[in-house]
## 1
Amino acid sequence: MKELGFRKETAVGRYLDPFNNFQEKQVTFEARYDEITGVASRILPYRVRIAQKPDVDSYLEKSPESLCPFCPGLFEKLTPKFTPDIIPAGKFQRDVAYLFPNAFPYDQNNSIAIFSSRHFVPLDELTPAFMQKGFKVCGDYFHRMAQMNLGYKHCSINWNYMPPAGGGLIHPHLQTMAGLKPTNYVRHLLTSAQNYAEASGGNLWRNLIVQEREAKERFIASTGSISWLSSFAPKGMAGEIDFIFQEKSSFFELTEANFDELLNGLAKIFTYLYLNNFMSFNMSLYAPMINDKHFWVQGKIVPRFEINPLGTSDINYFEKLHNEVICPVVPEELCRELQPYFS
Ligand SMILES: [Zn+2]
């Protein structure tokens, strides 16, 4: 098996420490690069703990139910509808969950799915039962897109939960994309998988899971068909959790049981985040719509937060303009902290 591309270098920062009589202090950090994802991260050894939960009440004051387009009062009036050729009813519906076009699209097929009419749902109430219909209605939409034979090859289900993660509305909602081309990041993953197969004849994701399981450093758990991993080079300041579906090379190969397994795992991660004073995350699930033997359906969760007392963003020039992530959460520690939630 060809070795998979995790690179790291250790470096030392030195200064005279004002908190210790200006004695010399050395701080060791790691510059990591993941060749599979193309992500570069600086792993810092000094852990930043979020001391208190952000103030949800101020969000609710600024964005009350009465002004929310996803709450029952304005939902029918203010949410867009699909043209009848896509769905005569105008919206996809699964019980209390709905999917409809994004009023501010950034892709040809960019939709929003709400889970229910509940305006604010705290992290610890994002249970599998609560999330189930929201993910199902996304599946209904992708099935309809496939049925319409438009040649779409790539889809994703995405989530900005709460404002620190870019959520423009408090009301929990997913965003879907379906189209001919992958996004820039997914293209990188597809290319890595293709190159790996050409060079070694193997499947990148199968071998990555074998490698990570044996290394026992970042392999959080297997829940049956899904492997849960802490990313070697995270895309977020608070780390990154990856999930990879074993042997699933298209969205349409996912069964109901696979989705239940995914939502159970997500709920465990959300519980961990809730208990550690987070209240926000980004999530994406990437899937081919036409079988791609080199790619396995997979996704990521990145916790997001504001840094008090100023509400400072967790994204700065280093990530925005240098494409490197400063991560004061050691991925191997994040893995150990998450493992008990999966046992
Ligand atoms: Zn609402």
Note: The helical segments are 56-62, 72-78, 128-147, 184-200, 204-215, 256-275, 317-322, 331-342.
## 2
Amino acid sequence: MGFKKIKNDELHKSITLLQPSMPFLVTTLNENNSINIAPFSWGTPVSQYPPMMSLALLNKPKKQDSLKNIERMGEFVCNLIDISIAERAIAASYEYRENNKFVILNFAPAHSEKIKTPGITEARAFIECRTKFLKEVGDHILIISEIVAASFNPDYYSGSLLMDLRKTKPLIHLEQYVVKDGQVHVFVDTSCCKALNIPYVER
Ligand SMILES: Cc1cc2nc3c(=O)[nH]c(=O)nc-3n(C[C@H](O)[C@H](O)[C@H](O)COP(=O)(O)O)c2cc1C
């Protein structure tokens, strides 16, 4: 069967081909110093020396609160999470009237090493970021940040910093769709994952 072409006027849908994603929870400080929390998937490493990562946050038609906080404070924590807090992670993507979702969702702050913004104790690893520059890219703002500190729970990682999939199930988001009374988020269950060894063969 031939490939199915996505029509030119529907190319915005091609982004879905990049799924699944591994969302993390970003904590930032609100203007009143309370903590904001939201899940984001569009983040990736962009440099190793120095260690840097990118994050793309919606700017138009509505600017994410996390983006406003990052623009003002120049810092954020990227909290890496597992599937056990999937429900709270999704709940953190909704808007709350009082802008106090961190408290409503019962997250617990964890002290950061180099920046003022706390992480969450529910994370299995923290990446503390300080922004280097922001660039408007389409409807998002691309945030390029330096990783200024990072820590991880050794119970869930091997010595080489790889996740131990027998001990933790990372949050892997496949899709989201709308139903009559809400949204459904589908996650990948890594307990059925298989390791595949690809030996290097000299040619
Ligand atoms: C799994 C998941 C991944 C998301 N990834 C992103 C993302 O990469 N960028 C973005 O701008 N919004 C993303 N969102 C939407 C934000 O979480 C949502 O707009 C949230 O309300 C932003 O919160 P804030 O206004 O407190 O920053 C994602 C939502 C979910 C559920």
Note: The chain has a mean pLDDT of 95.
## 3
Amino acid sequence: MYKKICSKYEPTKDNLIHILHEIQDTHPQHYISDEAVEEVSKYLNLPTNHIYGVLTFYSMYSTTPRGKNIIRLCESPPCYIKGSENILRKLKVLLGVETGETSKDGLFTLELSACLGVCGNAPVMMINEDVYGDLTEEKVEEIIEKYRRAQ
Ligand code: FES
């Protein structure tokens, strides 16, 4: 699987980020495994240390398995002022996790994010590629329920 992804790109160092992105996006657990790093290292002829350096530098990458749905709650000031703390507390209770953790059923990983670019609708969160704004605790409960039903 990793070889196939690598082969879509020219084997140049400039493509490292693109390859890592695709590997993470297409993995059902949204992460980059040691095996994937080995494969990319061989393909681009880069030391694995260099790749791990990139993975730790960018917070969007994960080297541990994550849930099927990645929740990113905005923690920047405009969302904070509009109550993102309450939304975070609610999400933790609903999912039974702390920030950075994955729910026991493997459905959700809860993460924090910087501004998601839709401050007019604060507080805001993203689940995978979908944006949810003007959040209230009730709305969050409905959204999580919708995802649970969809599984
Ligand atoms: S500050 Fe939260 S979306 Fe911009």
Note: The mean pLDDT is 96.
